[in-house]
Design a protein that fits this description.
The protein is of the alpha+beta class and about 90 residues long. The chain has two helices and four strands. It is about 40% helix and about 20% strand. A hairpin with a 2-residue loop joins strand 1 and strand 2 (about 20).
Length: about 90
Amino acid sequence: MGFPKDPGCPGDAEEWDGAAWVRGVPYVRGWEDADAAGAALVAALERAGVEGVSARGDVDADGSGVVVLACPVSAAEVLRAWALAAAADSHG
């Protein structure tokens, strides 16, 4: 089912599974990139001993990839500590 063209939306929009999709936007490529990045991140975290993190690829409205993470609180605390340590190191 097609939608009337919205002046703020390039191309023709179509409804698919409850979402508006715009022709010509590389959703699949963005999703593939995000899914691969998420899998690589989970693998790296597991090598570092951080368990229970999962990731899935998704896309923004413009087709750019987004990685959606889910993790237990213990993993979030480890990631937070690493981020704070990296920030402290970068500020000398």
